[in-house]
Amino acid sequence: MRELIIGGARSGKSALAERRASEGGRQVVYLATAQALDGEMARRIAHHRQRRSADWGLVEEPIDLAGALRRHAAPGVCLLVDCLTLWLSNLLFAGAAARQVEAGASVDCPLLAGATAALIETLPQLPGQIILVSNEVGWGGVPMAALARLFADEQGRLNQRVAAVCDRVTLVVAGLPLTLR
Amino acid sequence: MRELIIGGARSGKSALAERRASEGGRQVVYLATAQALDGEMARRIAHHRQRRSADWGLVEEPIDLAGALRRHAAPGVCLLVDCLTLWLSNLLFAGAAARQVEAGASVDCPLLAGATAALIETLPQLPGQIILVSNEVGWGGVPMAALARLFADEQGRLNQRVAAVCDRVTLVVAGLPLTLR
Amino acid sequence: MRELIIGGARSGKSALAERRASEGGRQVVYLATAQALDGEMARRIAHHRQRRSADWGLVEEPIDLAGALRRHAAPGVCLLVDCLTLWLSNLLFAGAAARQVEAGASVDCPLLAGATAALIETLPQLPGQIILVSNEVGWGGVPMAALARLFADEQGRLNQRVAAVCDRVTLVVAGLPLTLR
């Protein structure tokens, strides 16, 4: 059972994912992709941490998501990945893509391409329950900055590809779920 | 009967709200939160005004929304609040929050926190029909400006909290309603 | 049979439109509104071209969309217009509107008004199948730039008006269709 939960900023998607994880009856392992690189990010991470149940496991993996999923997935486990958007951001900034785009060059991001391909290949093979949280970011018009356009394109493509290998896809709006599949 | 109508810019949410208000059979009172601070805002207000029925009442309240709702709600009245997004903007700029964020400080907005708590507490107690219009603003990626990030966060939280105390929640896309609850 | 397919950037709306066109059993004519004004646009156009069937017709028309639709619509033809967002952008930049707004003046765009009115009048009269692709751009908050605000307003209005004369309206999210009408 694989589920993708998507929505805009503060749409309630993480809270829905956590509710679904709690209700699934499995041991929940929270797979965090966030890196506390500044004070604002640290506050957002702390906000999420406060809300989580104390008996949940925690794995932190900013880059090798497919590897972390393979290592921790098990029949009795629910892996909650929060979120694919920060993971995408980590991949773009860890590799050369962000710097290339800012310098006006065309984009080539083998790290991103490889990590995404590994995720899409890995997901259907995993035992247990997998819940993935991701942002919708392409509904605000074409951004002025080339890097923001690249990010919106990659996020849109990633959401499409992950949705295609999930059993259930849910859009969250104002805290309310809308089933897309 | 409380309804939240949400959507993007020019999605047709105000027109839907006005239609629902007209069809409800009650005396309609339009509760405007807009302030005509510049020419563009004045044009937008005039555009809304032209469309409204001449026999509707009008109340203007940029800040104390809970107070205005309590004063004007009645069994035979439909209060149409347009919109929560401008109200949120008024609260952020009337208080110190916007200036704090622009100066790089962390955010503390007692005016916003108090006004929001009052609204959420007041809504379930009101007689008659209440229709609230609000924008979805968090679907365009993470804004570059700290103030825009704060606004998207607060708007998302507000929409979730108001939706939680409404009987009906409708998302409007290209003028077409999609029932979320 | 007229269908409007809308969604955010990289939501899969063009792919869905192409699938629907292929399945319709008619001769497909792709009506492209894009102009390859820079390298990034040229790459996006090439990406779309690769995916299309070789036996589809191609018409390129950046401005006079109603005229092109009238000339090419026929009972045995499916016209696939991709997309209304680039067309709107062409109209705003070909006329004086974009320059007026950037100079701080109020907006008056007779080219846009005339072309939009012609489209809305023409659509219900066309034989055969028409599929129109358009972007949702107003879900990311109020843009800082006046031109971006104008664009979001005009795009929102256009989507509402086109939706009102279509038999079917589909929102695409993460590659998955959501029927609005």
Describe this structure in words.
3 copies of one chain form a homotrimer. Chain A is 45% helix and 22% strand. The model of chain A has no long low-confidence stretch (mean pLDDT 91). With 181 residues, chain A is α/β, with parallel strands linked by helices. The longest helix of chain A is centred in the last third of the chain and has 19 residues, at 146-164. The two termini of chain A are 13 Å apart. Chain A has a 7-stranded mixed sheet with strand order 3-2-4-5-1-6-7, sandwiched between helices. Chain A has one domain: 3-Layer(aba) Sandwich (Rossmann fold), CATH 3.40.50. Chain A is globular and about 50 Å long. The first copy, chain A, is built from 7 helices and 7 strands, in the order βαβαβαβαααβαββ. Chain A has helices at 13-23, 39-51, 65-72, 84-94, 97-102, 110-122, 146-164, and strands at residues 2-7, 27-32, 57-60, 77-82, 129-135, 168-173, 176-179. Chains in contact: A-B, A-C, B-C. Chains A, B, C: Catalyzes ATP-dependent phosphorylation of adenosylcobinamide and addition of GMP to adenosylcobinamide phosphate. Chains A, B, C: Pathway: Cofactor biosynthesis; adenosylcobalamin biosynthesis; adenosylcobalamin from cob(II)yrinate a,c-diamide: step 6/7; Cofactor biosynthesis; adenosylcobalamin biosynthesis; adenosylcobalamin from cob(II)yrinate a,c-diamide: step 5/7. Chains A, B, C: This is Bifunctional adenosylcobalamin biosynthesis protein.
